[in-house]
Amino acid sequence: MVSLHIKLIFNGYVVFYCAAIILPNICICSLFSMPSSDQFSKDPGTFPVATNGESFPWRELRLPNVVIPLHYDLFVHPNLTSLDFVASEKIEVLVRDATQFIILHSKDLEIMNVTLHSEEDLRYRKPGKKLNVLNYPAHQQIALLVPEKLLADLKYYVAIDFQAKLADGFEGFYKSTYRTLGGETRTIAVTDFEPTEARMAFPCFDEPLFKANFSIKIRRESRHIALSNMPKVKTIELEGGLLEDHFETTVKMSTYLVAYIVCDFKSVSGTSSSGVKVSIYASPDKWSQTHYALEASLKLLDFYENYFDINYPLPKLGRFKFHIVIFIVTYRMCFDFPPSYVI
Fold first, then answer.
1. What is the pLDDT of residues 165-223, one digit of tens each?
2. Which of 191, 190, 189, 183 is nearest to 285 (CA)?
3. Distance between CA atoms of 342 and 81, rounded to whole angstroms?
4. What is the pTM of this model?
5. Under 8 Å CB-to-CB from 136, ≥6 apart: which residues?
6. Does the keyword Flavoprotein apply (predicted)?
7. 3-state SS string for 224-275
8. Are 87 and 159 in contact (CB under 8 A)?
9. Phi, psi for 177 (deg, rounded to 5)
10. What is the distance between the alpha carbons of residues 154 and 251, in angstroms, rounded to a whole number?
11. Whole-angstrom Cα distance, residue 321 to residue 289?
12. Looking at residue 230, what is its pLDDT?
């Protein structure tokens, strides 16, 4: 009899433990579960409303991980007179689970055209399928609705044409100015994407988890230069006196590390003992102040490579300066401008 009572008490404790510990965890996990495309098709009324009045197929602040980016082919043409830019991109994505939409980040961008190509389309040169775009500004997201379900474990290519104004602040792809010794105000176009502002420059999977490679092309006037994360491969001359710079493909990285600039700065360069090209960029009036910065940069890069026993991972290191000549080498790629800008 005593053992029976002990057994009942033990069983009661187990039931209490399950009710008090396990069940709440199950409930909490269910709160963070991601809705699927099937859920949207069954009950679209539970989802938010896009700007055109249709149901937006995603209700979470974080992007779904059903579709992941592999490579961005990005083209940008800023106009430093009208202070806007036109751009296009082709994103190679991998579909991990079948879905009928792709969710991307986009903020203050005018999407003009979106097409989808499968690998078969590209192989046989078939025209892409035009996609409908839904915009949900509250989460800075757009939804690309595909006519037929994307199949799991296949690659697709999303081509997007878009345009926007150069931003007024210090985020995204923005305009900045400096004054020459003669009193002239000049404009340059600069990026600052950290932590979540790449979406202001191009539609993207703007979360650190979604890493990809980037191939960047920048069109500019001949009086300007263009720079990005990687060394320039070639420059193509176009009609109307325009030039188009093509840069090497980056290492796999998050969107907030992408950087590019169009300006009229001048530079001085040197090579570290490990073969890394180091450049210091400054406005023409400040170019005479760059040589000390270059000398210090080369010494600091050598010091930190020896100290940490880790070589700098990229083929070049650049620094932009307006007035302050300070150089700090770090082993993460960061882009902080103004007063300094690293690429």
1. 999 999 999 999 999 999 999 999 999 999 999 999 999 999 999 999 999 999 999 99
2. 183
3. 25
4. 0.82
5. 48, 50, 51, 56, 58, 142, 143
6. no
7. CEEEECCCEEEEEECHHHEEEEEECCCCCECHHHCCEEEECCEEEEEECCCC
8. no
9. -135, 160
10. 23
11. 9
12. 93
CA 24/CA 271 separation, integer angstroms = 59
Instruction: Give the whole-angstrom CA distance, residue 276 versus residue 340.
Output: 20
Structure tokens at 292: 């000390």
Q: Which of 29-38, 106-115, 216-225, 239-248 has the lowest mean pLDDT?
A: 29-38
Q: What are phi and psi of 67, to 5 degrees?
A: -120, 130
Q: How would you list the strands of the sheet with 266-271, edge to edge?
A: 266-271, 277-282, 316-321, 340-342
**Residue 119 near residue 158 (C-beta atoms within 8 A):** no
* Whether the Cβ atoms of residue 58 and residue 141 lie closer than 8 Å to each other: yes
Type of residue numbered 209: L
Q: Which of 337, 325, 203, 169 is nearest to 261 (CA)?
A: 337
Residue 101, Ramachandran bin (φ over 0: left; ψ between -120 and 50: alpha; else beta): beta
Question: What is the b/e burial string over 56-90, where b = at least 16 CB atoms within 10 angstroms of the residue's CB?
Answer: bbbeeeebbebbbbebbbbbbbbebeeebbbbbbb
- Which position has the token pair 């007179």? 81
Sequence-distant (≥ 6) Cβ neighbours of residue 294 within 8 angstroms: 268, 269, 270, 278, 279, 280
Residue 12 CA to residue 10 CA, distance in Å, equals 5
Q: How far apart are CA 193 and CA 76, in angstroms?
A: 15
